[in-house]
Amino acid sequence: MAIREILTVPNPVLKQVSKTVDVVDDQLRALMDDMLETMYDAPGIGLAAIQVGEPVRVIVMDLQEKPEGAPPEAEGVRNPRFFVNPEIVWRSEELVGYEEGCLSVPEIYDEVTRPAKVRLKYRDYNGTEIEEEVDGLYATCIQHEMDHLNGVLFIDHLSKLKRDRAVSKVKKAARAA
Ligand code: K1U
Ligand code: ZN
């Protein structure tokens, strides 16, 4: 397993539309393992393959809250989820706002409104087809990550003024680093 570099705005790779995966094999599982390690290291609660420069429709996620004082690598507190070729087959009319962040737009947080519940279809780490309805942070996070697969960032849901300011802040921070 390896920690990969996470691409940040305004890298044009982040605007690419990712390709459908043909087969869930050991090579794809190695990418998912790297993505999970990269996400835990960041730290974050989700990551799309394009954020590490791989234009394939793969997402990893872990929404598990860590018990107070537990080290991030503590056994038993992880609940990794893997999504290959995820599709949203139903969206609720009810909407909800959430203060989102993104590892590709570091240090920027702003509210995005999305459907409160979605029904998902995807393949998991073993290639098994899953269909489930999700809500709460799970629904928000999967919609954020699926936007990445289509080259869309959460700042694309904001005004042009806020988006331009966010990109300028990230560029300035990168120059200073
Ligand atoms: O870059 C990403 O796509 C990951 C992003 C996922 C996300 C966060 C909030 C709403 C929607 C999607 C992040 O993980 S940003 C970092 C973050 O939220 C976090 C980091 C450490 C602990 C808890 C949360
Ligand atoms: Zn993101």
Commentary on this structure:
The structure is a single chain. The protein is of the alpha+beta class. 27% of the residues lie in helices and 24% in strands. It has three helices and seven strands. It has a five-stranded antiparallel β-sheet with strand order 1-2-3-6-7. The protein has a two-stranded antiparallel sheet with strand order 4-5. A hairpin with a 5-residue loop joins strand 6 and strand 7. The chain is globular, with a radius of gyration of 16 Å. Ligand K1U binds next to strand 1, strand 4 and helix 2.
The residue-averaged pLDDT reads 96
Beta-strand percent range: 15-25%
Q: Give the overall silhouette.
A: globular
Instruction: Give the structural class.
Output: alpha+beta
Number of strands: 7
The multimeric state of the shown protein is single chain
Quick summary of this structure?
The chain is of the alpha+beta class and 177 residues long. It has helices at residues 26-41, 136-149, 160-176; strands spanning 46-48, 58-61, 81-91, 95-100, 110-115, 118-123, 129-134.
What order do the helices and strands come in, and which of them pair?
Blueprint: H1 26-41, E1 46-48, E2 58-61, E3 81-91, E4 95-100, E5 110-115, E6 118-123, E7 129-134, H2 136-149, H3 160-176
Antiparallel strand pairs: 1-2, 2-3, 3-6, 4-5, 6-7
Label this structure with key terms:
single chain; 177 residues; alpha+beta; globular; binds ligand K1U; binds zinc ion
